[in-house]
Amino acid sequence: MTETTPVDWEQARALAYAAGAAVAGRTETVALADADGRTLAEPLRALTDLPAFPTSSIDGWAVRGAGPWRPEGRVLAGGTPQPLSADGACVEIATGAMVPAGATALIRVEDSATSDEGLVSGEPRPIPDWRLPGEEAHLGEELLPAGTPVDPAVIGVAATCGYAELTVWAEPRAALLVFGDELLTEGTPGAGRVRDSLGPQVPGWLRRYGATPIGVTGPVKDTLAAHLDAIRTGLEEADLVCTTGGTMHGPVDHLHPALAELGADYVVNTVAVRPGFPMLLARVTGADGRPKFIAGLPGNPQSAVIALVTLVAPLLAGLRGRPMPPLPSVEAGAAVPGRGNFTHLALAALDPTGRTATPVGHVGSAMLRGLANAHGFAVVRPGTKADAGDLVPFLPLPLTPGER
């Protein structure tokens, strides 16, 4: 495989997203309790008018006609009241209770009085204290479109409508293959060998981007046969196989030859971004005829994470039926150099307001200390640099599972 011209960073993100969106289509039905974090595959429609019946917004009295009124009983939430019999009648009513037929007004308990004879008097407020059927939504009305991220509020709306389950896009399954005979999986580095940091961390990034990690394999031996066997095994179960290392064309870099053997076609083959060079995204046809993907992440840890945010995150957004999130603009807290004809992704930490991003230290492509202290990347486009105070795009790292 010969070297190719690197793809512009923004174009690479768009190509990865389009590749995922083109094959999104597997849906599944999940219980409301399991729907948080998923994506609606169908519009959420009202199964009934909301409210479904006239509902009291107050504790007080439902009255008919002019007062004073004689109480005929009480209606609580969950009950079905009898109609008010005639003018001059009322019932005590609780918040959330169904307003009885025939009621002409509701009077708050604090605005009412009861005589020695047991008659109720009072004045209704100018704005009616009940909710009418369909006030929030009408039967069949689209409340949320397909593609909406499901969060606790969406689950609450669905429950209010009467849903027990939601149809959502299936979560992509992702496998990780760690390449490199020089890697240790335990203990401290030394004697020419380094500790693998990608096997432990990449599944967490994948999970935060909406994939279901299904396992880590490796270190895989530095032979073409071992690479092919590991990739084929991963593709049997996963929609996406991520590999670490081997994205160059050196004597022990077998990823490109393995992709050729598998008949893969490149969605993106190298991206003009620093750090992170080189990375790739390829596509193969699975046993079921559906495309599956292989993402080649560089072996250097920070470069691997940049490959994840550049290619894997947009791909997964497309596969999940999500829109590609736009990049917010922030103010550069310090100067950020350019990288010539390459986009520079500079690790940066946000201030408490979230409006200023300042580059962090320890940002070599093989380093992770800077990554652990950053909230994301300041984006400096090719042929430019950023001075302190300039507005720059900001690519945030994914939030933790407990955040939004």
TrEMBL record:
Organism domain of life: Bacteria
Reaction catalyzed: adenylyl-molybdopterin + molybdate = Mo-molybdopterin + AMP + H(+)
Keywords linked to the UniProt accession: Magnesium, Metal-binding, Molybdenum, Molybdenum cofactor biosynthesis, Transferase
Top EC group: transferase
GO cellular component: cytosol
Job of this protein: Catalyzes the insertion of molybdate into adenylated molybdopterin with the concomitant release of AMP.
Protein name in UniProt: Molybdopterin molybdenumtransferase
Organism: Actinoplanes missouriensis (strain ATCC 14538 / DSM 43046 / CBS 188.64 / JCM 3121 / NBRC 102363 / NCIMB 12654 / NRRL B-3342 / UNCC 431)
